[in-house]
Amino acid sequence: MKIALMDSGIGLLPAAAAVRRLRPDADILLSNDPDGMPWGPRTPEDLTGRALDVALAAAEHRPQALIVACNTATVHALPALRAALEPGIPVIGTVPAIKPAAAAGGKVAIWATPATTGSAYQRGLIRDFADGAEVTEVPCPGLADAVEHVDRDAVDAAVDAAAALTPPDVRAVVLGCTHYELVEERILAALEARRRAGLPPIVFHGSADAVAAQALRRIGAEPAPGADPTGTLSVLLSGRPGQLPATALGYAEGRALAATAAAR
């Protein structure tokens, strides 16, 4: 079993780690685009072209599924990726987990990039899936870039700024950018510091576990977390064979993937 994941940078690490947890025997292929990152500021047409190049490079290695581990690429390039690869290779997009976050009621905040916050895409998800919950859209300028470059000071500044825009009595937080899951603990600490005493803990809703499980469903495989840890790890850097970026080792998910690869 081989599952590929794509993103411009290391935002794919949480989903890759989730795949590894569900299927330790799965071969994982990470297809990044260091030559074209970041994708966020690009036009939709330009971004789609970069995403297609990254996806087609991964497809040459014949994975059974491809996870688009990037919210921005999902928004703009998912139809083109599916047209190019399906039905031969199922393509799984990444969508903010608004529906499960709203299901329990209470206030919900969505942390996302400035480009996604207030977009027709995100507003449509809120309209269709928030089920009447009170939703606050929180832009997080600079956070994804800070996470990508493992800039702790910049992460702290971006997280604190976004926390100040988040209602202190929010019940659930949706992480609408895959990079944000890498600093979930830092985000939680910033929100809890502003939280009134006596309120229940904040529930986070990322996308990594959901997209990993969906990838298995699309290829007819069951989770088998107890399987022999025989899965390999390979990396493409703008289509070229390479190594896991050094920045990935700044996060637990990257270190876990590197450790399992070194053990093979």
UniProtKB/TrEMBL annotation:
Pfam family, one: Asp_Glu_race
Gene3D superfamilies for this protein: 3.40.50.1860
Source species, domain of life: Bacteria
Protein name: Aspartate/glutamate racemase family protein
Key words, A-Z: Isomerase
Keyword ATP-binding assigned: no
InterPro entries cross-referenced by the UniProt entry: Asp/Glu/hydantoin_racemase, Asp/Glu_race, Asp/Glu_racemase_AS_1
